[in-house]
Amino acid sequence: MSYYRLFRGFFRIIFSLVFRWQVIGREHIPKEGPVILCANHISLWDPPLLGSGIERQVHFMAKEELFKIPVISFLITKFGAFPVKRGAGDRAAIRTTLKLLEDGKIFGIFPEGTRSKTGEPGEAMPGVAMFALKSEAAVIPVAIIGPYRPFRSIKIVYGKPIDLTRLREAKSSADTLKETSDLIMEHIKQLRNQHLS
After folding, report:
1. Distance CA 104, CA 67 (A)
2. Tally: H helices and E strands in the chain
3. Which residue, of 30, 102, 141, 169, has the greatest Cβ tally within 10 A?
4. How many Å apart are CA 107 and CA 195, to the nearest integer?
């Protein structure tokens, strides 16, 4: 058994017993080919939750400082993470992400770039749009509905792929990136609102 499957099994037990998770929309994840999972961000629990809800392995960016801590570095690397320099355009991390997608893998990203202090989805950073437009990946909106409290239900909802055909065919520009980012966040918000109750 791979480390990833082992860790995923461990987290599934936690999410099932402690947080009574509900996983909705697994059927929307393509069984093969590149996928970008775009989720709102409310907690440090979000990355393992995002990856634990589906069968295929999910890869993530994680701040490079974590890779300087030996035990944590080992664990997050085995869980599919790779380093990124925060606050700057990290070309190595960008190349790694695009290569993962080119190889037909799944990449998980939180478009807001940081956790929401209010729990409400915020504005997306342009990075998610760049990855969506530079790849042929299926872009899946994901709503995480908390809060993470023991024995209170947490929901993770995987939505249908977003149709980005028009934007992928448009001329690359700051406006196109902004429109794409806004469209992705709007789908996440709609998905969250549909399943709040």
Report:
1. 25
2. 7, 7
3. 141
4. 24
How far apart, in whole angstroms, are the C-alpha atoms of residue 176 and residue 167? 7
pLDDT tens sequence across 6-47: 999 999 999 999 999 999 999 999 999 999 999 999 998 999
Total number of residues shown for the chain: 197
Of 62, 25, 29, 30, nearest in space to 192 by CA:
25
- Tokens 């664990």 belong to which residue? 75
What residue has token string 């993962």?
Answer: 100
Nearest alpha carbon to residue 49 among 147, 152, 155: 155
The two beta strands, 155-158 and 138-145, are antiparallel
Tell me the two tokens of residue 33.
């080919």
Instruction: Examine residue 147 and say whether the peptide bond preceding it is cis (omega within 30 degrees of 0).
Output: yes
Task: Give residue 72's identity as a one-letter amino acid code.
Answer: I
User: Is residue 116 within 8 Å of 42, Cβ to Cβ?
Assistant: yes
The whole-angstrom separation of Cα 65 and Cα 86 is 10
Question: Residue 103: how many CB atoms within 10 A of its CB?
Answer: 8
pLDDT of 18? 96
Interatomic CA distance for residues 130 and 174, integer angstroms: 10
